[in-house]
Amino acid sequence: MKSKLTILSLALVCPAVMFSQVTQTTTSSAETTTMDTTPSYNSWSISFGGGIPLMQNADLRSIQNGNTLVGYSAYFSIDKALSHTFGLKLQYDRGETRQGYFNTKDAAPANAAANLQVAGRTQYDGISLIGDINLSNLLRRVDRKSDFRWAIHGYAGAGVLAYRAYQKDEFGQRLMTEKKPFKFNSLFGQAGAGLKYKISNRVDIEGRLMYVITGDDEFDGGGDQYSAVNRISSHTTDNFFNATLGLTVNLGKNANHIMWVDPLKDIYNKIDELETKVDNIQLCKSGDADNDGVCDDWDRQLDTPAGARVDGSGVALDVDMDGVIDLYDKCVTVPGPVENNGCPLNNTNNGAVSADETVMNGIEFDLNSDRILPSNNSILNSAVSYINSTNGSYVVVGATDTRGTESYNQALSQRRADNVKQYLISNGANSSKLEAQGNGKFDLKYPECNPASKCPEWKNRANRRVYFKAK
Asked: How many domains does the chain have?
């Protein structure tokens, strides 16, 4: 129990536990243990795509008085995921915006000619470093039945911009502004969002909408800031929307990319593996004679029975303090005499927990899993002895938490019950005394956990259980 809580704490504090095999080396006079450090997920990818830029905030605009001028854009980026929620992109953008001012109905501004019709186009190149936040992983639902094919990403970054801006009017087309990159005044920024769909483990498709801030009043082709065109709207910085559709190709030898990992599920899957590895490491110089996880120097009970849960001083737990430790207590939460296995002599089950139901108290399951955890083997082995020592027949009942659909949870709870029944029979239980039954999401140990978001995770985990009841 204590080692599992310690491991879960380490997993929550150290995000690296979610994405790689943990390395831990302990050297003693007897042995050295080393764990694998091979990464579990890919973190590199490349992205490319194209789309349409529309000048939105400028003196010359792509949509003006019913007229629309459409340009083109393309991008290519090298992407590095730093965790399941955050990454960086080194991106190259190239494109051409097309914009104009068409004042054919109203009088032109006082500083422009009447019926002014001016068109502009801007060819641009940009290099930027962009931060990538996987909002879906950051705020991921935890029903665990989704295969995580959709993800919402947020982007923001800055870089350097180079462009050539042209203007076309009644005098023809001419180059108005040319700006080269790698100068302080060529900085620009962009931010936006994207919706990704995982086609396969290697390829994603994504639609993006980015807002590009040029920080420049001459980008639209209006000329210098005091020209007649650039005084159509005062103090206007030329910005535009860029809508694109593209592909992401994930690189690496592993099956999955880190940005498609469900972090919570990954933590729980690691706990049992880490617990097994930690148990194999010599942690106590004085030894642990009863193997209860408490070093003999601090252990107040050096002969704790195998499988018993203990407190911080190594004493076996007795929740109801009736003198029968929880390992042997058939009514863990109700006091009773030793001769009746810790249950009341006149137990009519009026609100009390029966011995049948508590013999398997604590058989819990990982989310979206029907695998029996190694830590439950000792409890199940005690259940085999209990079944064979009584005359009654029992139903092995499986249950789930409230995440997911009714049909999905019904099937999952049935698999859990079937697996426990098969384990008991394989370890000597009389098969004629057992029946498996799945109750789905409607058999909650903590009914207040509906929906699951109302409760802490330990209560939802307690709802994912298997227990006995008499036929």
From this structure: 3
What's residue 129's pLDDT?
Answer: 97
Same domain, 197 and 321: no
Q: Is there a single domain that holds both residue 272 and residue 412?
A: no
465 and 436 in a common domain: yes
Same domain, 268 and 256: no
Predicted local distance difference test score (pLDDT) of residue 279: 57
pLDDT of residue 283: 64
Cβ-contact 466, 399 below 8 angstroms: yes
| Residue 374 φ/ψ region, left for φ over 0, alpha for ψ in the -120 to 50 degree band, beta for the rest | alpha
> Nearest-CA neighbor of 417 among 367, 346, 365, 351?
365
Q: Per the structure block, which two tokens stand in for 368? A: 């979206």
The residue behind tokens 């799945």 is: 438
Which pLDDT value is given to residue 168?
86
**Residue ranges, the chain, pLDDT below 50:** 1-37, 104-115, 347-358
Shortest CA distance to 75 belongs to which of 57, 89, 85? 89
Sign of CA dihedral 82, 84, 86, 92: positive
Instruction: Supply the pLDDT for residue 75.
Output: 97
User: Contact at 8 Å (CB) between 105 and 67?
Assistant: no
Phi/psi at 217 (nearest 5 deg)?
-90, -5
- Residue 78 has a pLDDT of 97
Reported pTM = 0.51
CATH code of the domain containing 239: 2.40.160.20
Residues 84 and 257: their CA atoms lie apart, in Å, by 9
Measured in residues, the chain has a length of: 471
**Domain span at 173:** 44-260
